[in-house]
Amino acid sequence: MSHVAKPLPDLSHPDFLPYWQACQESRLVVQSCPTCLTVRWPPRPSCRVCGAQAITWSEVSGFGSLYSWTTIGHPYDPAFEDEVPYTVGVVELYEPAGIRFLGRILHDEGPLTIGDPCRVEFVRVDVDLQLPVWRHVPL
Amino acid sequence: MHPEIAIVGVGETAYTRRSERSAYSLAMEAILAALADAGVDRTSVDGMVAFPGEVFPQQVATALGATEVRFTAQITTGGAASVSSLGAAAMALQTGNATHVIVYGARNGSSGQRVRDRISRLPAEDLRRQLEYPYGWMTPAHWYAMICRRHMHQYGTTKDHLAAVALTMRANAQRNPRAMMRGRALSRDDYFAGKMIADPYQKFDCSLETDGAAAVVLTTADRAADLRRSSVVVAGHASALPESADDLSNRKDWLRVGLSDAAPRAFAMADTTPEEIDAAMIYDCFTFELLHQLEEVGLCPRGQAGDFVLDGHIGLGGDLPVNPHGGLLSEAHLLGVNHVIEAVRQLRGEADERQVHDVEQVVVTGWGDLGDGSVAVLRKGR
């Protein structure tokens, strides 16, 4: 095990609080604008389409396709040295269209291909934190 | 009509891996060298554009004995600041807010800063800490590797294309006495044996870590006429943020970056076109980013930069020499200020054995953070 603490999210950050609370319940949520219904991710204080500052949160399915990825051999942060090589990717949700999440890609041996399906899973990191990760589902 | 702006002096320190010197000391050496090159008295400096973080204008002003500094700026677009700083300097000079402006960068890339210090200066640090760092996705190599993967997917770009960039930059460095990689040849086998950093990036896809400083001096063309050096005119300059500037993941088109929007404006300001460019200094923080920017600045159609490089067009004997100094990949990573300096030396005809023949116009790009872009067209002065 590495002796350097991994960087963890600030669970008390007001802009992200509902997100981390939902992750604790193994639910993936994104923001949307109650005025014009535009869905947005990551969290923003206002709507890029209509400018409204009200925020609602809604659950999304957690299925999508691989948009890009990299398998990292040199993490820079020594906290991740014991995990190399590891794969980080971006998954574009099927619904709502266009929303993309970054996260670890869990995959078996064999090639990853852009467009491959992925589904969200939650990995418990601490008593108050589950991190969403993405399971590669080979075609 | 705005007065024309000229670069009248350039200077740099030696580029090393471990200087054992402060960034302040390095900065002053480069700035004093640039002022001496220009023949501008150090107390005449009344404007400064600095990279954020290392050495503040207040420190430089005091060391220079410059008591009438009235314009200072720090541009927060990472490496794109190299070229955006020329634009900021030009605007200060054209409005009369300054008469002699220095642009400088200094860094202890290897001996001074640690990675966690460096990434704490990125835009949207909250977002990075919440949604990216916990997965171990932390550095430009990690981010841009994913952009490269998209380009490979969409256009068939390959590792052979990336290798051609690395080998060309290394070959160029062999003709540059300042290059950190002079005397260190790189073979194709060496390239493919490099440690995996972030697939598809291996060791030799990544730029160097450098201790050093570089500086340039700008003034108006009428003042430049009285100075000792033939001047280089800043004929056009532009900067832009990409769409979704602080979040790569949700950017609609990952290949469309700040440079894509900035380039047409810079060429229009210079009243020229990419076809009329004689050499290019491209911000080659990684091999693919050189290909990417060749396309987005308009020197090559989208998807074709890999073959363009593989076919030898960007080498010293090619029809569009790129980074004759060896670039960030093989000269030094001096934040792109070294690219501006190389453009000036080429336009003055002072590049010795790496001199590009008949060079009248050079384009210089800057790239930073998640795709912030800048570009300038520099032209031989009258």
CATH topology of chain B: Peroxisomal Thiolase, Chain A, domain 1
Using the 3D structure, state the CATH architecture of chain B: 3-Layer(aba) Sandwich
Q: Give the CA-CA distance, first to last residue of chain A.
A: 34 Å
Q: State the low-pLDDT regions of chain A, or none.
A: none
Radius of gyration of chain B: 19 Å
Whole-number tally of structural domains of chain A: 2
CATH class division of chain B = Alpha Beta
- How far the N terminus sits from the C terminus of chain B, by CA atoms, comes to 18 Å
Class based on secondary structure composition and strand pairing of chain B: alpha/beta
General shape of chain A: globular
DSSP strand content of chain A: 35-45%
Number of E-state strands of chain A: 8
* Average of pLDDT of chain A: 95
Largest sheet of chain B: 9 strands, mixed
Can you tell me about this structure?
The complex is a heterodimer of chains A (about 140) and B (about 375). Chain A is mainly beta and about 140 residues long. Chain A has 2 domains: about 10-60, no CATH class; about 60-140, OB fold (Dihydrolipoamide Acetyltransferase, E2P) (Beta Barrel), CATH 2.40.50. Chain A has 1 helix and 8 strands. Chain A has one helix at about 15-25, and strands at about 30, 40, 55-60, 65-70, 85-95, 100-105, 115-125, 130-135. In chain A, strands 4-5-6-8-7 form a 5-stranded mixed barrel. In chain A, strand 7 (about 115-125) and strand 8 (about 130-135) form a beta hairpin. Chain A starts with 16 loop residues before the first helix and ends with a strand. The mean pLDDT of chain A is about 95. With about 375 residues, chain B is of the alpha/beta class. In chain B, about 35% of the residues lie in helices and about 20% in strands. Chain B has a 9-stranded mixed beta sheet. In chain B, strands 5-6 form a two-stranded antiparallel sheet. In chain B, helix 1 (about 25-40) crosses helix 2 (about 55-65). The longest helix of chain B has 16 residues, at about 25-40. The mean pLDDT of chain B is about 95. The interface of A and B includes residues 73 and 101 of A.
